[in-house]
Amino acid sequence: MTAVMEKADASTRTGDVPSFDVTIRVRRFNPESAGESGVESRWDEFHITAYGTDRVLDALHKIKWEHDGSLTFRRSCAHGVCGSDAMRINGRNRLACKTLLKDVNPDKPITVEPIKGLPVVKDLVVDMEPFFASYREIMPFLITNGNEPTKERIQSAEQRERFDDTTKCILCAACTSSCPVFWTDGQYFGPAAIVNAHRFIFDSRDDGAQQRLEVLNDKEGVWRCRTTFNCTEACPRGIEVTKAIQEVKRAMITRAF
Amino acid sequence: MPTAQGGTLYRGREGMWSWVAHRVTGFAIFFFLLVHVTDTALVRVSPEAYNAVIGTYQTPLMGLGEAGLVAAIVFHAFNGIRIILVDFLAKGPRYQRVMLWIVLGLFVVTMAGFLPRHLMNVFGGQ
């Protein structure tokens, strides 16, 4: 009877969402067959149909659920918070769950590889233990002296602002595994550990700055940073990683005198 | 644990490639200095030997090499100042890309002044 119903019938039917075809090239590695075949890792191509709202993670899901169930990758929240699905998409570290397919040129095959510098366990899954070992070494917890206050530890908005940028880290390892120094020297603490040290060093409530600076004032500490800015470009949370590292370097110099 | 390396080259941006260029020019300059200290030290051995060695440098090929050497030093010098500013200025990291374009601009200006004069000397254009 009404014009609204006729109109809905004519044009806006569900299922009319425009789709496009895309090729995904995934770097595969199977630890069980690696020894026998002599081939360490290989590229696999998958052709799938995707929508404008699909992310690389949706494409990987589609491959795993509809094409090849053996494809292995990590993901938990799938919404850019847990930091599980950092991978190298078209040559750059990104979170698969925050990268839309239409933003990485779906006209060409999209390459998906595990992040560099960490041992690959299977397909896109890497062993994160060296990464977390560095994180633990900078003591990522509150260190205080003296008596505990009876109420909360008060901090002004300006004091909180000082380290606000580095509180955003989700430990996805996109920065550390984008660092050319980390690729060749696995002993280097890496950007993520320094970012998390920065978060406590510049926290007015924390008294452990001296200890953390001593840990990082090492041959493999902050001085290994060559300011290539790959970490800043790679961070999915937009943390100015190199800036944080430079601030830790400068704190080391200024607090020593 | 098994590793599967290889794959594509990491697509770093200006920061990474300026670092690569800085490292490459640094190595080139180091090896030049190695040779340069050696040939200059020859003057202590005998002036004739020194002249003979320096004489072999007066070829067009070496002239092009000198142009490359100056290019490497000019880039390394200007980019070195950029790295110092990134290290010591609070706003350095934020403006690193702008500073790289300034470095490349200065590089082009310096080489535009040097190359014509140098190549005229090398190839005898007068």
Automatic annotation (TrEMBL), chain A:
Q: Which PANTHER family match?
A: SUCCINATE DEHYDROGENASE [UBIQUINONE] IRON-SULFUR SUBUNIT, MITOCHONDRIAL, SUCCINATE DEHYDROGENASE IRON-SULFUR PROTEIN
User: What SUPFAM superfamilies does the record point to?
Assistant: 2Fe-2S ferredoxin-like, alpha-helical ferredoxin
The UniProt record lists the EC number as 1.3.5.1
The UniProt transmembrane annotation reads none
Recorded metabolic or biological pathway in which this protein acts: Carbohydrate metabolism; tricarboxylic acid cycle
The record's section on CDD domains has: fer2
User: Which family, according to UniProt?
Assistant: Belongs to the succinate dehydrogenase/fumarate reductase iron-sulfur protein family.
The name this protein carries in UniProt is succinate dehydrogenase
Q: What cofactor(s) does the depicted protein rely on?
A: [3Fe-4S] cluster; [2Fe-2S] cluster; [4Fe-4S] cluster
Q: Which residues form the 4Fe-4S ferredoxin-type domain?
A: 159-181
The cross-references to PROSITE patterns, in alphabetical order and at most eight, read: 4FE4S_FER_1, 4FE4S_FER_2
Q: What class of enzyme is it?
A: oxidoreductase
Keywords of the record, alphabetical order, are: 2Fe-2S, 3Fe-4S, 4Fe-4S, Iron, Iron-sulfur, Metal-binding, Oxidoreductase, Tricarboxylic acid cycle
Highest taxon above the source species: Bacteria
From TrEMBL, chain B:
Q: Where in the cell is it found?
A: Membrane
SUPFAM superfamilies in UniProt: Fumarate reductase respiratory complex transmembrane subunits
* One protein family per Pfam: Sdh_cyt
Q: Which InterPro entries match?
A: SdhC_prok, SQR/QFR_C/D, Succ_DH_cytb556, SuccDH_FuR_B_TM-su
Keywords (alphabetical) are: Heme, Iron, Membrane, Metal-binding, Transmembrane, Transmembrane helix
Q: Please report which protein family the annotation says this sequence is part of.
A: Belongs to the cytochrome b560 family.
Q: Which NCBIfam families match?
A: succ_dehyd_cytB
This protein is called what? Succinate dehydrogenase, cytochrome b556 subunit
- What's the source species for this entry? Myceligenerans indicum
